[in-house]
Amino acid sequence: MEVTGLTYAYPGAAGGRPVIEDLSFSVRPGEFVCVVGPSGCGKTTLLRLLAGLLRPDAGEIRVDGTVVNGPPEDLGFVFQDHARALLPWRTAAKNVEFGLEAAGVPRRLRGPMVQDVLRRVHLPDVERLYPGQMSGGMQQRLQIARALVARPSILLMDEPFAALDALTRFALEDGLLEVWHELAPTVLFVTHDLDEAIYLADRVVVLRRNPANVVREVPVALERPRDQGRSRAQDEFVRLRFELFETIRSL
Ligand SMILES: Nc1ncnc2c1ncn2[C@@H]1O[C@H](COP(=O)(O)OP(=O)(O)OP(=O)(O)O)[C@@H](O)[C@H]1O
Protein backbone atom coordinates (compact mmCIF):
# COMPACT_ATOMS: atom_id res chain seq x y z
CA MET A 1 0.00 0.00 0.00
CA GLU A 2 1.40 3.36 -1.07
CA VAL A 3 -0.06 6.54 0.35
CA THR A 4 1.18 9.73 -1.33
CA GLY A 5 0.39 13.35 -0.45
CA LEU A 6 -2.92 12.37 1.15
CA THR A 7 -5.04 15.40 2.06
CA TYR A 8 -8.58 15.46 3.40
CA ALA A 9 -10.89 18.09 4.95
CA TYR A 10 -14.35 17.20 6.25
CA PRO A 11 -17.01 19.17 4.33
CA GLY A 12 -17.86 22.29 6.29
CA ALA A 13 -14.71 22.18 8.45
CA ALA A 14 -13.83 25.61 9.86
CA GLY A 15 -11.76 27.50 7.29
CA GLY A 16 -11.73 24.33 5.14
CA ARG A 17 -8.88 23.16 7.37
CA PRO A 18 -7.76 19.67 6.43
CA VAL A 19 -7.66 16.94 9.11
CA ILE A 20 -4.92 15.25 7.10
CA GLU A 21 -2.48 17.11 4.89
CA ASP A 22 0.19 15.82 2.55
CA LEU A 23 0.54 12.52 4.40
CA SER A 24 2.70 9.82 2.83
CA PHE A 25 3.78 6.36 3.91
CA SER A 26 3.90 2.86 2.56
CA VAL A 27 3.26 -0.61 3.89
CA ARG A 28 4.88 -3.76 2.55
CA PRO A 29 2.79 -6.84 1.70
CA GLY A 30 2.24 -8.90 4.84
CA GLU A 31 3.61 -6.22 7.13
CA PHE A 32 1.96 -5.43 10.49
CA VAL A 33 1.93 -1.66 10.99
CA CYS A 34 0.47 0.08 14.03
CA VAL A 35 -0.61 3.72 13.89
CA VAL A 36 -0.50 5.82 17.07
CA GLY A 37 -0.99 9.52 17.70
CA PRO A 38 -2.73 12.06 19.93
CA SER A 39 -6.48 11.79 20.41
CA GLY A 40 -8.43 13.33 17.55
CA CYS A 41 -5.42 13.59 15.25
CA GLY A 42 -7.15 11.80 12.38
CA LYS A 43 -6.36 8.10 12.77
CA THR A 44 -9.92 6.96 12.08
CA THR A 45 -10.19 9.41 9.19
CA LEU A 46 -7.02 7.90 7.73
CA LEU A 47 -8.46 4.37 7.96
CA ARG A 48 -11.71 5.54 6.31
CA LEU A 49 -9.70 7.00 3.46
CA LEU A 50 -7.66 3.81 3.12
CA ALA A 51 -10.88 1.78 3.08
CA GLY A 52 -12.21 3.92 0.24
CA LEU A 53 -15.09 5.17 2.43
CA LEU A 54 -13.92 8.77 2.05
CA ARG A 55 -12.42 10.31 -1.07
CA PRO A 56 -9.15 12.26 -0.69
CA ASP A 57 -9.13 15.94 -1.65
CA ALA A 58 -5.59 15.49 -2.89
CA GLY A 59 -3.03 12.74 -3.09
CA GLU A 60 -3.69 9.06 -3.70
CA ILE A 61 -3.71 5.59 -2.22
CA ARG A 62 -2.46 2.70 -4.28
CA VAL A 63 -2.84 -0.95 -3.46
CA ASP A 64 -0.68 -3.23 -5.61
CA GLY A 65 -0.18 -0.26 -7.91
CA THR A 66 -3.91 0.41 -8.45
CA VAL A 67 -5.44 3.67 -7.23
CA VAL A 68 -8.18 3.15 -4.60
CA ASN A 69 -11.40 4.83 -5.78
CA GLY A 70 -13.93 3.07 -3.56
CA PRO A 71 -14.01 0.22 -1.03
CA PRO A 72 -11.58 -2.41 -2.41
CA GLU A 73 -12.99 -5.97 -2.48
CA ASP A 74 -9.82 -7.34 -1.05
CA LEU A 75 -10.00 -5.49 2.25
CA GLY A 76 -11.33 -6.30 5.71
CA PHE A 77 -12.29 -3.71 8.35
CA VAL A 78 -12.60 -4.25 12.12
CA PHE A 79 -14.23 -1.51 14.19
CA GLN A 80 -13.81 -0.77 17.88
CA ASP A 81 -17.51 -1.01 18.59
CA HIS A 82 -18.32 -4.68 18.03
CA ALA A 83 -21.85 -4.27 19.40
CA ARG A 84 -22.71 -1.91 16.55
CA ALA A 85 -20.60 -3.61 13.91
CA LEU A 86 -22.24 -7.04 14.28
CA LEU A 87 -25.78 -7.83 13.12
CA PRO A 88 -27.72 -8.77 16.28
CA TRP A 89 -30.45 -10.67 14.43
CA ARG A 90 -28.01 -13.03 12.73
CA THR A 91 -26.27 -15.92 14.46
CA ALA A 92 -22.49 -15.91 14.82
CA ALA A 93 -22.13 -18.13 11.75
CA LYS A 94 -24.48 -15.91 9.73
CA ASN A 95 -22.56 -12.80 10.81
CA VAL A 96 -19.34 -14.31 9.47
CA GLU A 97 -21.11 -15.55 6.35
CA PHE A 98 -22.11 -11.95 5.70
CA GLY A 99 -18.46 -11.28 4.83
CA LEU A 100 -18.68 -13.97 2.14
CA GLU A 101 -22.04 -12.82 0.80
CA ALA A 102 -20.55 -9.36 0.38
CA ALA A 103 -17.62 -10.91 -1.50
CA GLY A 104 -19.99 -12.89 -3.76
CA VAL A 105 -18.80 -16.36 -2.66
CA PRO A 106 -21.29 -19.09 -3.76
CA ARG A 107 -23.52 -20.42 -0.94
CA ARG A 108 -22.23 -24.04 -1.11
CA LEU A 109 -18.65 -22.92 -0.40
CA ARG A 110 -19.51 -20.69 2.54
CA GLY A 111 -20.14 -23.21 5.37
CA PRO A 112 -16.63 -24.74 5.49
CA MET A 113 -15.02 -21.30 5.15
CA VAL A 114 -17.06 -19.98 8.09
CA GLN A 115 -16.15 -22.97 10.25
CA ASP A 116 -12.49 -22.70 9.33
CA VAL A 117 -12.19 -19.04 10.26
CA LEU A 118 -14.19 -19.46 13.51
CA ARG A 119 -11.76 -22.21 14.52
CA ARG A 120 -8.80 -19.95 13.69
CA VAL A 121 -10.07 -17.17 15.96
CA HIS A 122 -10.81 -19.72 18.72
CA LEU A 123 -14.59 -19.60 18.51
CA PRO A 124 -15.30 -23.21 17.52
CA ASP A 125 -18.72 -23.81 19.12
CA VAL A 126 -20.61 -20.58 18.72
CA GLU A 127 -22.22 -20.94 15.30
CA ARG A 128 -25.78 -20.88 16.60
CA LEU A 129 -25.28 -18.19 19.26
CA TYR A 130 -26.40 -14.63 18.64
CA PRO A 131 -23.92 -11.77 19.31
CA GLY A 132 -25.99 -10.68 22.34
CA GLN A 133 -25.31 -14.09 23.93
CA MET A 134 -21.53 -13.65 23.63
CA SER A 135 -19.00 -11.74 25.78
CA GLY A 136 -17.32 -8.57 24.45
CA GLY A 137 -14.12 -10.49 23.70
CA MET A 138 -16.03 -13.20 21.83
CA GLN A 139 -17.91 -10.59 19.82
CA GLN A 140 -14.65 -8.96 18.85
CA ARG A 141 -13.23 -12.34 17.77
CA LEU A 142 -16.38 -12.76 15.71
CA GLN A 143 -15.87 -9.41 14.03
CA ILE A 144 -12.28 -10.39 13.22
CA ALA A 145 -13.54 -13.69 11.79
CA ARG A 146 -16.01 -11.81 9.59
CA ALA A 147 -13.27 -9.48 8.34
CA LEU A 148 -10.91 -12.40 7.59
CA VAL A 149 -13.28 -15.01 6.17
CA ALA A 150 -12.92 -13.85 2.57
CA ARG A 151 -9.12 -13.87 3.03
CA PRO A 152 -8.51 -10.17 2.37
CA SER A 153 -4.97 -9.14 1.56
CA ILE A 154 -5.39 -6.01 3.72
CA LEU A 155 -6.90 -5.80 7.19
CA LEU A 156 -7.68 -2.37 8.67
CA MET A 157 -8.34 -2.33 12.41
CA ASP A 158 -9.57 0.73 14.34
CA GLU A 159 -8.78 0.35 18.05
CA PRO A 160 -10.41 -3.06 18.04
CA PHE A 161 -9.45 -4.04 21.59
CA ALA A 162 -9.78 -0.65 23.32
CA ALA A 163 -13.00 -1.50 25.18
CA LEU A 164 -11.81 -4.85 26.54
CA ASP A 165 -10.22 -5.72 29.89
CA ALA A 166 -6.46 -6.33 29.97
CA LEU A 167 -6.50 -10.15 30.03
CA THR A 168 -9.07 -10.40 27.23
CA ARG A 169 -7.04 -7.88 25.27
CA PHE A 170 -3.84 -9.95 25.67
CA ALA A 171 -5.68 -13.07 24.49
CA LEU A 172 -7.08 -11.25 21.46
CA GLU A 173 -3.71 -9.73 20.58
CA ASP A 174 -2.18 -13.21 20.60
CA GLY A 175 -5.11 -14.62 18.62
CA LEU A 176 -4.67 -11.87 16.04
CA LEU A 177 -0.93 -12.52 15.71
CA GLU A 178 -1.67 -16.22 15.25
CA VAL A 179 -4.09 -15.64 12.34
CA TRP A 180 -1.78 -13.01 10.89
CA HIS A 181 1.05 -15.61 10.84
CA GLU A 182 -1.24 -18.17 9.21
CA LEU A 183 -3.06 -16.00 6.65
CA ALA A 184 -0.42 -13.27 6.19
CA PRO A 185 -2.64 -10.24 5.48
CA THR A 186 -1.12 -6.77 5.49
CA VAL A 187 -2.40 -5.19 8.72
CA LEU A 188 -2.87 -1.53 9.59
CA PHE A 189 -3.87 -1.32 13.25
CA VAL A 190 -4.83 1.93 15.00
CA THR A 191 -4.39 2.00 18.76
CA HIS A 192 -4.05 4.43 21.67
CA ASP A 193 -1.99 1.94 23.58
CA LEU A 194 1.77 2.20 22.96
CA ASP A 195 2.47 -1.19 24.57
CA GLU A 196 -0.08 -2.82 22.30
CA ALA A 197 1.46 -1.13 19.26
CA ILE A 198 4.96 -2.36 20.14
CA TYR A 199 3.77 -5.87 21.00
CA LEU A 200 1.96 -6.34 17.69
CA ALA A 201 3.86 -4.35 15.10
CA ASP A 202 6.74 -4.71 12.71
CA ARG A 203 6.70 -0.91 12.58
CA VAL A 204 4.92 1.84 14.51
CA VAL A 205 3.87 4.96 12.59
CA VAL A 206 3.42 8.06 14.80
CA LEU A 207 1.05 10.78 13.62
CA ARG A 208 0.90 14.35 14.78
CA ARG A 209 -2.26 16.45 14.67
CA ASN A 210 -3.58 19.67 13.09
CA PRO A 211 -3.13 18.45 10.43
CA ALA A 212 -2.28 14.78 10.70
CA ASN A 213 1.06 13.84 9.31
CA VAL A 214 3.70 11.17 9.90
CA VAL A 215 6.27 12.42 12.39
CA ARG A 216 8.12 9.20 13.00
CA GLU A 217 8.28 5.58 11.89
CA VAL A 218 9.76 3.26 14.49
CA PRO A 219 10.77 -0.26 13.46
CA VAL A 220 10.14 -2.95 16.09
CA ALA A 221 12.93 -5.50 16.05
CA LEU A 222 11.52 -7.79 18.77
CA GLU A 223 11.73 -11.43 17.75
CA ARG A 224 8.60 -13.39 16.83
CA PRO A 225 6.62 -15.27 17.97
CA ARG A 226 6.11 -12.76 20.76
CA ASP A 227 5.11 -13.57 24.29
CA GLN A 228 3.05 -11.26 26.48
CA GLY A 229 5.33 -11.74 29.49
CA ARG A 230 8.76 -12.14 27.93
CA SER A 231 8.48 -9.64 25.05
CA ARG A 232 7.20 -6.86 27.30
CA ALA A 233 10.06 -7.46 29.77
CA GLN A 234 12.81 -7.08 27.14
CA ASP A 235 15.07 -4.04 27.25
CA GLU A 236 14.22 -3.31 23.62
CA PHE A 237 10.50 -3.19 24.45
CA VAL A 238 11.10 -0.74 27.30
CA ARG A 239 13.37 1.37 25.09
CA LEU A 240 10.76 1.52 22.31
CA ARG A 241 8.02 2.50 24.78
CA PHE A 242 10.17 5.35 26.07
CA GLU A 243 10.99 6.51 22.54
CA LEU A 244 7.34 6.49 21.44
CA PHE A 245 6.13 8.11 24.65
CA GLU A 246 8.65 10.93 24.35
CA THR A 247 7.76 11.44 20.68
CA ILE A 248 4.03 11.71 21.40
CA ARG A 249 4.57 13.90 24.45
CA SER A 250 6.57 16.35 22.37
CA LEU A 251 3.75 16.82 19.82
N1 LIG B 1 -17.77 13.14 10.27
C1 LIG B 1 -17.01 14.17 10.66
N2 LIG B 1 -17.31 15.43 10.32
C2 LIG B 1 -16.54 16.47 10.70
N3 LIG B 1 -15.41 16.35 11.41
C3 LIG B 1 -15.07 15.11 11.79
C4 LIG B 1 -15.83 13.95 11.44
N4 LIG B 1 -15.22 12.85 11.96
C5 LIG B 1 -14.13 13.31 12.60
N5 LIG B 1 -14.02 14.65 12.50
C6 LIG B 1 -12.94 15.49 13.06
O1 LIG B 1 -11.72 15.09 12.47
C7 LIG B 1 -10.68 15.07 13.43
C8 LIG B 1 -10.02 13.70 13.47
O2 LIG B 1 -10.97 12.74 13.93
P1 LIG B 1 -10.61 11.19 13.95
O3 LIG B 1 -11.79 10.47 14.54
O4 LIG B 1 -10.13 10.76 12.62
O5 LIG B 1 -9.39 11.17 14.98
P2 LIG B 1 -8.76 9.97 15.80
O6 LIG B 1 -7.29 10.20 15.82
O7 LIG B 1 -9.24 8.66 15.27
O8 LIG B 1 -9.40 10.24 17.24
P3 LIG B 1 -9.37 9.31 18.54
O9 LIG B 1 -7.94 9.06 18.86
O10 LIG B 1 -10.02 10.16 19.59
O11 LIG B 1 -10.14 8.08 18.22
C9 LIG B 1 -11.30 15.48 14.77
O12 LIG B 1 -11.06 16.85 14.95
C10 LIG B 1 -12.79 15.25 14.55
O13 LIG B 1 -13.54 16.16 15.30
Automatic annotation (TrEMBL):
The keyword Transport applies. GO terms for molecular function: ATP binding; ATP hydrolysis activity. PROSITE patterns: ABC_TRANSPORTER_1 (PS00211), ABC_TRANSPORTER_2 (PS50893). Gene3D superfamilies: P-loop containing nucleotide triphosphate hydrolases. SMART domains: AAA. It comes from the Bacteria. Residues 1-234 form the ABC transporter domain. SUPFAM superfamilies: P-loop containing nucleoside triphosphate hydrolases. Keywords: ATP-binding, Nucleotide-binding, Transport. It holds the Pfam family ABC_tran. Coiled coil: none annotated. PANTHER family: ALIPHATIC SULFONATES IMPORT ATP-BINDING PROTEIN SSUB (PTHR42788:SF13), TAURINE IMPORT ATP-BINDING PROTEIN-RELATED (PTHR42788). This is NitT/TauT family transport system ATP-binding protein.
